[in-house]
Write a structure and sequence with these properties.
mainly alpha, 4 helices, 65% helix, elongated
């Protein structure tokens, strides 16, 4: 299924690095979302989750391109972010887009954000 994925063009070290980068970005996004959602209503939490997810899908290609640029010496330095890919965001979330690790990972991230948003929120402690 994933045999043509660009992930497999990397060596073992590059794959481990890409996995660590992806994990770190996901954890940072989830932690930021959790902090922003605390004490908010369900509707606001859902809006935060969708907004942060959209921001991630829009901006993360530059982070990943920079990672690949550091690995492959022949890649030019360039800006790879364009208009927000709203259609792609829907395809990732519904798993109807391309069958690659990146698309499926973004789909899983969307649903993790939804689970986080649907989790009952405790009010913020004003002393914290």
């Amino acid at each position: 299924m994933y045999s043509e994925d660009s992930f497999f063009s990397l060596g073992v070290g590059g794959q481990i690095g890409l996995g660590c980068l992806s994990f770190a970005l996901a954890v940072a996004l989830m932690f930021g979302a959790w902090r922003l959602m605390r004490g908010k209503s369900l509707m606001v939490r859902l809006l935060i989750a969708v907004g942060l997810y959209a921001l991630f899908v829009w901006l993360s290609p530059q982070i990943y391109y920079t990672y690949y640029w550091m690995i492959f010496e022949d890649l030019p330095v360039q800006w790879v972010i364009g208009w927000p890919p709203f259609q792609a965001m829907f395809e990732h979330a519904s798993f109807t887009g391309r069958s690659n690790l990146s698309s499926h990972g973004k789909g899983v991230l969307f649903w993790l954000m939804m689970v986080l948003a649907l989790k009952p929120s405790k009010p913020r402690d004003p002393t914290a």
